[in-house]
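Re: beginner question about structure tokens

> Can someone show what the tokenized structure looks like for a real chain? I only ever see the sequence side.

Sure, here's an example I had lying around. Input first:
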Amino acid sequence: MRYISTRGQSAPQSFCDILLGGLAPDGGLYLPERYPQISRAELDAWRTLSYAELAFAILSKFIDDIPAADLKAICDKTYTAEVYGYVRDGAKASDITPVHWLEPGKLGLLELSNGPTLAFKDMAMQLLGNLFEYVLDKRGEQINILGATSGDTGSAAEYAMRGKHGVRVFMLSPHGRMSAFQRAQMYSLQDDNIFNIAVRGMFDDAQDVVKAVSNDHAYKAKYKIGAVNSINWGRVAAQVVYYFKGYFAGTGSNDEKLDFVVPSGNFGNICAGHIARQMGLPVGRLILATNENDVLDEFFRTGVYRPRNTAETHATSSPSMDISKASNFERFVFDLVGRDGAKVRELWSKVDAGGAFDLSGSAEFAGIGQYGFTSGSSNHADRLATIRRADTDYATVVDTHTADGLKVALEQRDPTVTTLVLETAQPAKFEETIVEALGRKPARPAGLENIEALPQRVEVMDVDADAIKALIARVVDAG
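And the corresponding structure tokens:
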């Protein structure tokens, strides 16, 4: 399997090469040359596999430059009850990604937050940490990971990479824009290979810095800069797995359709669903849910992709979705326009210049229905109402991002089709809003009761790519 850039000007690469590289040299994102097609016989055989077995079966379709025995060992090491076994509601998670039924057989939450940082990002990031360590050890190399987070990616990356040989992590986050719990999870880590940088801006500003550094090819090569954001294909490939697992848990046979509702800011999570559907998973609809930062909802309703600037990006009570430039959206648009790299370059030249593009009258947008997307949005009042409704009607406390998804699911679900909402995080990470909605604090897993009181280590900086490059250089050059 070879990987090509969405912008069509980079040579095809192997999986291990793009795992360490992040963005393609032409500024695009990597995708496989073709999506592997899954047969009915494979679907039938996969239905009863454990999560680790299913991960190996699916990832083997995308990774052919790691020996099968080694890849299986990595999957077995990653997807264990010990790693994904946080206690919730007094009981240990019975499965790595169990379905919590709100209405049995009709409406459920796909639990994705039983990992070490209580967020769905752990599902892919723990695998990525083990893949990085394996490839670096085989090559005798080191890597300096530069990432940006709106909340959960950062902690998931740091917990996955802490203590790994040959890896340093430099994680940018928006200063003062995450929940206190999210900040504490990241900034309290004292590992020598973890460096937190809070930038005076929004997530999009931090993400722009990451892209600027990645596009400085001489600097990137000299300082061995890699990526763990969802621009990294390895993250997306790992997330494809839980769509299959959720489908099998939510249906009785492979003749049924199932709708997934996905809270989305950067389009990475739902992009994995798009790829699963393209591979042949019998997904009915992929229902995208945004918060007040509704750039993606606007596109699927109108055909206009209009990223907002920092001043126009809202700070909300679902902060991990406070994103107005969805990096992974480029992967979907590449498929939408017939995998035409020149067309993607044309569209993103407008975006990269601070503008927008309009596909509303195009043949491509006219055919968007074949991809199964619909969308909706939510706001703070909706979030509070949905959290209360879930508590009252379903005896379930959901986090703010999952509430955005559940709100849209309740509006748009088809009563004849099972609907699964992809859970984003455990509610303990967003305590302030849960208290506002319910008048009580959500339960916390053992050991995290007083995480905000731990000593924190973070450097606050302006949004300045050159200054951040200088900081990384000082750390790396000092050994």
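Each token stands for a local structural state, so reading them left to right follows the chain. Residues 179 and 430 are 6 Å apart (CA to CA).
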